[in-house]
Amino acid sequence: DAGITQSPRHKVTETGTPVTLRCHQTENHRYMYWYRQDPGHGLRLIHYSYGVKDTDKGEVSDGYSVSRSKTEDFLLTLESATSSQTSVYFCAISELDGYTFGSGTRLTVV
Amino acid sequence: GENVEQHPSTLSVQEGDSAVIKCTYSDSASNYFPWYKQELGKGPQLIIDIRSNVGEKKDQRIAVTLNKTAKHFSLHITETQPEDSAVYFCAVLTGTASKLTFGTGTRLQVTL
Q1: In the 8-state DSSP scheme, what is residue B42?
Q2: Those residues with Cβ within 8 angstroms of residue A7's Cβ, 6 or more apart along the chain or in another chain
Q3: A42 and B97 in contact by Cβ < 8 A?
């Protein structure tokens, strides 16, 4: 989607390894979010940010950490990947209420 | 926290028919209700939204209705076309930091 990019698009990693997913925006939006999408669960919020260095937990934050050192970048880190973290991860940006989503990162933990 | 239920989980309609997807929510303070369409391999895209001071909103073949008393809102698609086939998500704006809570999604299939 215009203004928001996620990298990588696909990744396969081994159990126990650290993984970092990147979300980059060019819209200068204040709010950024990380969601995971799993069958039967819809989209669930992992972490979100309301400004540089201002982050908070969502409903499924265990095993994940985030960082936002610049307005444009929001990083999601799996400190030690587990098979339960196999999922599609979406980043979203917002200024007030309308979200714009990235194209997603498909992560497989083997 | 907010709880959003979405029904049905799958919906198959013939081209030209109407489709209706319903969502209920729990937090009476919620005031913004968007709908997203997700095509295969892509991120969700906003298709229509409604705020709590409005009961209905239309945009060509799609409409959303909101009943704040009953805490439910619905997406209506008329004259469905094959390109309407996708997964649709409802969402509710919750609390501070503009956080959206999503329903579990409805897979709509429009058959010829």
Answers
A1: S
A2: A21, A22, A24, A105
A3: no
Output the DSSP codes for chain A: -TTEEEE-SEEEE-TT--EEEEEEESS--SEEEEEEEETTTEEEEEEEEEETTEEEE-TT-TTEEEEEEETTEEEEEESS--GGG-EEEEEEEESSS--EE---EEEEE-
Tell me the shortest Cα–Cα distance from B23 to chain A, in angstroms. 13
Q: At a CB cut-off of 8 Å and minimum separation 6, what does B58 contact? A: none
User: 3-state class of B91 per DSSP?
Assistant: strand
d(CA B95, CA B87): 26
Interface test with A, best of B49, B98, B101 (most A CBs within 10 A): B98
**Tokens matching residue B29:** 């303070």
Token pair recorded at residue A34: 């990380």
Cβ of A45 and B49 within 8 Å? no
B47-103 tens-digit pLDDT: 999 998 889 999 999 999 999 999 999 999 999 999 999 999 999 997 777 889 999
Separation CA A42–CA B42 (nearest Å): 14
pLDDT in tens, A58-82: 999 999 999 999 999 999 999 999 9
